[in-house]
Amino acid sequence: MTIIPTGSRSMSEVTTTPGSTEPVLGSEHELPEEAREIVFEIRNLAVRYGGALAVRDVTLDIAANEITAVIGPSGCGKSTFIRCLNRMNDLVAGATVEGLVRFHGEDLYDQRVDPATVRRRIGMVFQRPNPFPKSIYDNVAYGPRINKMKHNLDETVERALTHAALWDEVKDKLKKSGLALSGGQQQRLCIARALAVQPDVLLMDEPCSALDPIATARIEDLMEDLKREYTIVIVTHNMQQAARVSDRTAFLTTEVDDSGHRSGRLVEFDRTATIFTHPSDPRTEGYITGRFG
Ligand SMILES: Nc1ncnc2c1ncn2[C@@H]1O[C@H](COP(=O)(O)OP(=O)(O)OP(=O)(O)O)[C@@H](O)[C@H]1O
Ligand SMILES: [Mg+2]
User: Fold this and answer.
1) Residue 129: other Cβ atoms inside 10 A
2) Which of 130, 192, 213, 250 has its CA 20 to 30 A from that of 13?
3) Ligand nearest to the CA of 252
4) By percentage, how much of the chain surpasses pLDDT 90?
5) How far is the CA of 79 from the centre of ligand 2 (A)?
6) pLDDT above 70: percentage of residues in the chain
7) Residue 223 gets which letter from DSSP?
8) Closest CA relative to residue 226, chosen from 156, 164, 278, 177
9) How many CB atoms are located within 10 Å of the residue 14 CB?
C-alpha cells in the first residue's frame, strides 16, 4: 500500500529540496548495505520553529526490521527529528521542514500524501504513557475503528495486546479503564494501541523514561520481538539502552553559532557497535563516555 493515492502525478521536485542521494555506509564487518531494505531515506533534513533553526544536516537511511536509536544531549533535536518521520511536525504551529524524507521510496512531504494514512502506517509512542480515559479494549480498538478496520475487531485487539506482551495480564479485565494499569502496563497498552492499526514503523520517543528498570526491561525485550515485523526508531537518553537494543545509532549534538543561537545537527550515524566502540567523531566519544552533554 502506498501513501500517495494512485493516479496522481508526482510533485516531489517542487515540494521538497532534494539533498544528496549518496548511500550511507556502515561498518565493513556485516551485511552489505544493498542487502538492507530501506524504509526511510533522509537527506539534508532541517527543521525550524518560527524561522529559528532547531536541527539540521540529518542524512541517514533507516532499514526495515532494524532498531535505530537516536541519542544526544537535551535540546539537540531528537524529538523534532523523529516527529518528521510521521509528519507530526505538521501539527506544531510554526514548524517548517526542509530537505527530503522518502518512505518506501515515496516523498513523505509530497502534497498528495494523506497525513492520516502516514500516521496509520507509522505509529508513535511517547515518553509518558498516555492511554485514553477509556477501557483497555476501547484504547486498542480506537485506531481500527476510526480507520474503518472493524472486521474481526476482537481478534485485532487480542493480537495487538499479545504483540505488546500485555494480553496475559489484561485478558480478564478488558472492560477496565486503561488508566487503572501500572505505568509499564500503560506504556505496553500504548504500544498495543499503535500496533492495532498494523503499522510498518513504530516511532518511540523515550518510551521508558517514566518506567522502572523491570518495566524498562520488558519493553526492551518486546522491542527485540517486534523488530521481526516492524521497523523501530527509538529516542533514548539511556546509553545502555541504545547499546542493548539498537542495530544502528544516530548521534546528534548541539552547536552554538556566532550569534549565540543553539541548534542541533547529526554528528555520526553508524552501526551501534561501531558508535559505541570506535566512533569516528571525538564528540560522539565524548558523549558516550559521559565527558560531554
Ligand atoms: N514546539 C516547539 N516550538 C518551538 N521550539 C521548539 C518546539 N519544540 C522544540 N523546540 C526547540 O527545538 C529544539 C530541539 O528540541 P527537541 O525537543 O527536539 O530536543 P530533544 O533533543 O528532543 O530534547 P530532550 O532530550 O530534552 O527531549 C530546542 O531548542 C527546543 O527548544
Ligand atoms: Mg525530546
Assistant:
1) 23
2) 250
3) 1
4) 80
5) 4
6) 88
7) H
8) 164
9) 8
Res. 292 pLDDT band, cuts 50 70 90? low
With a cut of 90, say whether residue 32 has pLDDT above it.
no
Which residue, 167, 168, 166, is CA-closest to 187? 166
Relative to the alpha carbon of 72, which ligand is closest? 1
Nearest CA to ligand 1 atom 30: 75
User: How many Å apart are CA 185 and CA 215, to the nearest integer?
Assistant: 8
- Which ligand 1 atom lies nearest to the CA of residue 235? 22
Residue partners of 58: CB distance under 8 A and separation at least 6? 42, 44, 45, 46, 81, 99, 250, 252, 265, 266
Compute, in angstroms, the gap from residue 251 CA to the centroid of ligand 1. Answer: 16
Residue type, position 215, single letter: A
Ligand 1 atom nearest 94 alpha carbon: 3
Q: Are 275 and 70 in contact (CB under 8 A)?
A: no
Q: Which CATH architecture has domain 36-127+201-288?
A: 3-Layer(aba) Sandwich (3.40)
Distances (CA, A) of 240 to 237, 273, 286: 9, 12, 15
Residues 6 or more apart in contact with residue 265 via CB below 8 angstroms? 55, 56, 57, 58, 76, 77, 252, 253, 255
**Angle (CA) 266 122 173, round 5°:** 125
- Name 61's Cβ contacts closer than 8 Å, sequence gap at least 6: 23, 24, 36, 38, 40, 41, 42
